[in-house]
Amino acid sequence: MKLSTRWGSEDGRERAIYYLEDAKTKFPDLLKFHASIKYNVPQWTRPAFDILVSNDWKLGDLPLLSSYDLSLEVIDLVVKTRDIVSREQRRLATLPPPIGHHSGCPQHKREKCEAAWIAAWILVIGRQVVHVDALFQLQPYQAAAAIKSLVVPGMSERCLELAIARTLEGDAFDYLDKVCTAALARLSPS
Question: Which of 32, 72, 123, 177 has the most CB within a 10 Å radius?
Answer without folding.
Answer: 32
